[in-house]
Design a protein that fits this description.
The complex is a heterodimer. By secondary structure, chain A is of the alpha+beta class. Chain A has a single domain, classed as 3-Layer(bba) Sandwich (FAD/NAD(P)-binding domain), CATH 3.50.50.60. Helices cover about 25% and strands about 20% of the residues of chain A. Chain A contains 13 helices and 21 strands. In chain A, the strands form 5 sheets. In chain A, strands 1, 2, 5, 6, 7, 8 and 20 form a 7-stranded mixed beta sheet that branches. Chain A has a 6-stranded antiparallel beta sheet with strand order 4-12-13-14-11-18. In chain A, strand 1, helix 1 and strand 2 form a beta-alpha-beta unit. Chain B is an all-alpha fold. Chain B has one domain. Helices cover about 65% and strands about 0% of the residues of chain B. In chain B, helix 1 crosses helix 2, helix 1 crosses helix 5 and helix 2 crosses helix 5. The longest helix of chain B is centred in the C-terminal third of the chain and has 24 residues. Chain B is globular. The N terminus of chain B is likely disordered. The chains are: A alpha+beta, B mainly alpha. The interface between A and B is large, with 42 and 54 residues.
Chain lengths: ~525, ~150
């Protein structure tokens, strides 16, 4: 049986950032992950601007729709991650999950990944340094976290106005005008505790090692040959350069069996479902909140449902009337431009809601066809006129653990059952938050046209299945250093440990917390 | 069966499908540009439909080939009442294929527009939408009858 000092399960944002300090401390680390790669034979677009590609290349459909046309949302707009950052040649990110990680979830749309880099391989790059209140509500050490944020920002390259960050990205014409409008009406927004700012972004504005700064080609959803947007794969490549690191691709971890001195991890191969086992002194669970819980439930034979967190979200399509006449700059980025945050204290003391504003262009018009109640030719004509003034507000709400949001594995050989229901109080909070956000958007001269409440789970933001607690509570819980209360030699490094989810983007916090947990574990094992 | 429902049976199936693909591509872009899709575009649409598991059958009745404006009624009706039906899926795939061509980029990419041209476009759109609405309002039986023949479930 192959052995190591530490086995890390998962290669997503948490897995790679937990593994890095362990490897740097000289420990022998083994990573088990799905490692699904980009579609074989998927051609890469030329390193040109979106507009130039659109007007010059007849073969552009391959880059925008994917060679298998999997990017066309025939199921409608409620396709969750079927679009967005997982479009075109990134559609591989969710491949094989239905067969390998089966779930029964009713109307909830759960998004999982077995890709190398996990869901981080389709990350939009929007970062946020969370407030002390948010961090404390999540169960994280608020006083320590700035250090870990800074270390991760420096490592992955984050542009913005914070400490250890590169210069901020250039804003496009919509964002510039919106920010100007906010400055003029700041008093109105201050009274309502609403702020508008450019968020930090994991996109380089200065070269970092072999990665190059962004060229503003607006091809962010489809290709990034210069690697300006951070992906966990880049850290995995760094890890592979260490002699004391080894990763096994194409594996699904099923369970762990701890003994007094070590832990045995049982897994299966994705190719032929052949069982295999690995041994280590310590195991780090970083397979995501759902799959880390699945492994823990199967290992400890827990059949009762456990609560988890699932961040609700909605989209509002807004029209900036002045933008209808402007063509806008050719050079720009497709990722989030501005962050509108409603700081009114809400459930758990967290922000009430937050909206990420995107300008609509490189995502193409056909994706919006179903949202226009007109025949296709008229809808396409309308979209071609109005999309240049279109700004999409992607709104997120906070989430706390309730008994109505649960994961259950009654039998380890059966699919994981997921139930997501919102309590009347939560629904009321969301409605109030949505109304306040619409009003804020209107005052930013962004006319809200249509609100789309997306199915539960479609944000792909899950957490809270193994929350941080000071003492063992419930079936699964972890200490603040990530160690599982219920059994020895197991540490949880992903979003499973968050007790609550604030509405702000939390991927940077996942990475910072994973680095913190990895560093603490490295120090513990070294001593 | 009414005479205009008869499909051209003297052509091989492949060419009937190509004809239908061309009709769909022209239909979805008819308001934005005058475009004769190339054979490759039609073939690509057929491949895309096949890849996404959407059957070309049932074919669009020939009356719509002769009077494409009438298809707008069925399109709008299915858009509202059966958004995941075969016809809507075909239309979305056709729009995606039509959009991903350099020809369409000229009219679909953002442009500098004057207030006058925006007003003109807006009124054109309003007139057309009104006409389609009237079509739906006046002949619901027509729409329902052809809705079934077009593959609306």
């Amino acid at each position: 049986m192959e052995s190591a000092d530490v086995i890390v399960i998962g290669s997503g944002p948490a897995g790679v950032h937990a593994a890095l300090p362990l490897v740097e401390a000289g420990l022998k680390v083994m990573m088990l992950h799905g490692g699904v790669q980009p579609n074989p034979g998927q051609p890469t677009p030329p390193q040109e601007n979106f507009e130039d590609i659109r007007t010059s290349y007849p073969e552009q459909w391959q880059w925008f729709l994917g060679q298998d046309f999997s990017s066309i949302p025939i199921e409608g707009l409620r396709g969750g991650l079927g679009g967005g950052m997982a479009s075109g040649n990134r559609s591989y990110v969710t491949r094989h999950t239905e067969q390998e990680l089966p779930i029964i979830s009713g109307s909830t749309q759960i998004i999982q990944s077995l890709a190398e880099g996990g869901l981080g391989a389709a990350w939009g790059g929007t970062c946020a340094v969370l407030s002390k209140t948010d961090l404390a509500t999540m169960g994280l050490p608020a006083a320590d976290m700035p250090r870990w944020y800074r270390e991760v920002c420096e490592r992955i390259g984050v542009s913005g106005n914070g400490e250890g960050m590169q210069l901020p990205l250039k804003l496009d014409h919509h964002a510039t005008a919106t920010l100007l409008c906010y400055t003029k009406r700041k008093q109105w927004f201050d009274k309502r505790s609403i702020s508008v700012e450019q968020p930090p972004s994991a996109i380089l504005t200065q070269d970092l090692g072999t990665r190059k700064s962004t060229t503003y080609s607006d091809m962010d959803y489809y290709a990034d040959p210069k690697r300006s947007l951070y992906r966990p794969e880049w850290t995995l490549e760094e890890l592979r350069k260490f002699a004391n690191f080894r990763d096994h691709r194409g594996l699904i971890a099923n369970s762990f069996i701890p003994s007094e001195k070590d832990v045995t991890v049982h897994a299966r191969t994705m190719e032929d479902h052949r069982p295999c086992a690995f041994q280590a002194k310590h195991v780090v669970l970083a397979a995501g909140a759902i799959n880390s819980a699945r492994i823990a439930l199967a290992s400890l034979s827990i059949s009762a449902p456990i609560p988890f967190l699932c961040k609700p979200h909605a989209f509002i399509a807004c029209l900036r009337l002045a933008g209808l006449r402007e063509r806008g700059p050719k050079e720009r980025i497709s990722t989030c431009q501005l962050l509108v945050t409603d700081h009114t204290p809400n459930i758990g003391g967290m922000e009430r809601s937050c909206a990420q504003l995107y300008s609509y262009r490189s995502f193409l018009l056909f994706r919006l066809l179903q949202s226009v109640p007109l025949p296709a030719p008229e809808a396409l004509l309308a979209l071609s006129c109005f999309t240049q003034g279109l700004v999409i507000a992607d709104i997120r709400f906070p989430s706390i653990r309730t008994a109505a949001c649960t994961l259950a594995l009654p039998d380890p050989n059966q699919p994981l059952g997921i139930e997501v229901e919102r309590t009347p109080m939560e629904r009321q909070h969301h409605n109030e938050a949505l109304r306040a956000m619409k009003s804020a958007l209107f005052h930013l001269r962004l006319l809200p046209l249509k609100t789309m409440i997306l199915p539960e789970g479609s944000t792909s933001h899950y957490a809270g299945s193994i929350p941080i607690q000071t003492s063992p509570q419930g079936h699964l819980s972890a200490a603040q250093d990530g160690s599982l209360h219920q059994v020895p030699h197991i540490t949880v490094a992903d979003a499973s440990v968050f007790r609550a989810l604030p509405p702000l983007p939390h991927t940077l916090t996942i990475m910072a917390n994973a680095r913190r947990i990895g560093s603490l574990l490295a120090a513990k094992l070294r001593s | 069966m009414l005479p205009f429902l008869t499909q051209p049976t003297d052509k091989p199936t492949a060419s009937v499908e190509m004809h239908e693909a061309e009709f769909l591509l022209r239909y979805v872009t008819s308001d934005c540009m005058r475009w004769t899709p190339a054979l490759e575009d039609c073939a690509r649409l057929l491949i895309a439909l096949d890849a996404r598991g959407i059957a070309m059958d049932p074919a669009i009745p020939s009356i719509f080939h002769r009077f494409p404006f009438l298809l707008r009624g069925i399109d709008l009706w299915s858009h509202i009442f059966a958004p995941t039906c075969a016809l809507q899926q075909k239309i979305i795939v056709a729009t995606a294929i039509a959009e991903c061509t350099p020809t369409s980029a000229v009219c679909l990419l953002p442009q500098q527009r004057s207030t006058f041209s925006l007003l003109l476009l807006g009124s054109r759109l309003a007139c057309r939408s009104f006409a389609v609405g009237m079509l739906l309002f006046i002949v619901p039986i027509f729409v329902r009858f052809y809705g079934r023949t077009c593959g609306i479930r």
